[in-house]
Amino acid sequence: MLFIAPADLGETVLATGALAHVLGPGDELTALAGAEAAPLFRAAPAAPAARVRVPERGGVSWALAALVAGKRFDAAIDARGGWLGRLAPTTRTLSLSPPQMLRHRVEDWGEAAGAGRALAPTIWLDEAAREAAARTVGEARQILVLAPGGSDEAKRWPAERFAAVARRLASGAMDNATVLILGAAERDDEVTRSIAQSLDADGVIARGVGAGLDLLAAGAVMERATLVIGNDNALTHIAAALGAPTLTLFGPTDERVRAPYGPRARTLRGRALDELGDAPYLDAGAAMEDVSIDAVESAAIEQLHAGGLR
Questions:
Q1: Which of 114, 122, 163, 210 could disulfide-pair with 20, CB 3.0 to 4.6 Å?
Q2: How far apart, in whole angstroms, are the C-alpha atoms of residue 33 and residue 52?
Q3: Of the candidates 80, 79, 56, 60, the residue with the CA atom closest to the CA atom of residue 68
């Protein structure tokens, strides 16, 4: 089995449901994924020959060529799309067709895999991830996780607003909670650090957790969380898939297609997408500015109550 991960980490998470659907415990899995995404596949229920190949920057085609040299796969999941998957020597390839209707990505993957249902994302945690999470969480009983990063600046809610909501919750509905600020990649280190410093200065127990945790360990942390609040990024997708109460903030992207998918996941936006489309021009950054601190606090409290957590 060959899995070709997309460049976008959130889309990678959404494709794991299709992988879980077709992957058997005795199958040999080869995943072609970037360095940040690679840990997501290390605990997949595959044969010991399972491996993850991390292509060097700009070297995806060469990595695939080296990977498949002299080998034919029984099946491939091409979550990247384009010409790369068509080069893979495989008997059967699963990939997404251009959408014919507005629906969530997990429904598209369900159709591509012939499942007849939406294929919810699957995150396979291992002991290493859970041990790293235990060290990170320590003795904290209430945990508020913030996931303020993301690869696209236009999809990021302002850092100072994340800090403001955390202050309100930690002194109100989540009194004395420990605030953990997680990043999905090195690019998020600056924002996680700045929010942690801002909260610490106000006496809120907070810690920025950046490059010290890979995505799988971050998932194990969020599995323990009382509440996760973040942007449309890999971390909120992972949190939702693991069943954590997750509130994801949306702006320029369509939550109807790519909202984090899970039993306790909720999304929030400012203006509706059709209102943004009616504007003379789409200021993607302003779409996140439309999400107010009051609205996020209110949604967070509602989510806490809905889960019986307060």
A1: 122
A2: 7
A3: 60
Sign of torsion over alpha carbons 37, 41, 42, 47: negative
DSSP one-letter code for 146: E
Query: What pLDDT, in 10s, does the model give residues 236-275?
Result: 999 999 999 999 999 988 999 999 999 999 999 988 877 6
Asked if residue 292 lies in contact with residue 270, where contact means CB atoms within 8 angstroms, the answer is: yes
Domains and their CATH numbers in the chain: 2-112 (3.40.50.2000), 127-306 (3.40.50.2000)
**Strand extents, DSSP E, the chain:** 2-4, 30-32, 51-53, 76-78, 93-95, 143-147, 178-182, 206-209, 227-231, 246-250, 265-269
Q: Tell me which residue of 290, 233, 289, 288 sits closest to 259, measured CA to CA.
A: 233
| Closest to 167 in 3D by CA, of 291, 289, 293, 266 | 293
d(CA 93, CA 98): 15
- pTM metric for this prediction: 0.92
CB atoms within 10 A of CB 298: 12
